[in-house]
Design brief:
By secondary structure, the chain is of the alpha+beta class. About 60% of the residues lie in helices and about 15% in strands.
Length: about 60
């Protein structure tokens, strides 16, 4: 399901892929904010925040 918020298209109800988790980790290491990462992935900022809190982006990429 896709949700359009203003002019941003976000994906809803879909798990993050391994590639997205690696991308999140890379952008965090480069100093991007959760909102910037969310914008690049087309995801909600809360999704990125939850992923970082869980530490899943590190675990899944190993």
């Amino acid at each position: 399901m896709t949700h359009i918020n203003g002019n941003t298209k976000t994906v809803k109800g879909k798990h993050l892929s391994r590639d997205e988790r690696i991308f999140i980790q890379t952008l965090i290491n480069e100093g991007y904010s959760n909102r910037q990462i969310a914008g690049k992935l087309g995801r909600a900022p809360q999704t990125i925040n939850n992923e970082i809190k869980r530490g899943m982006y590190i675990q899944k990429s190993r």
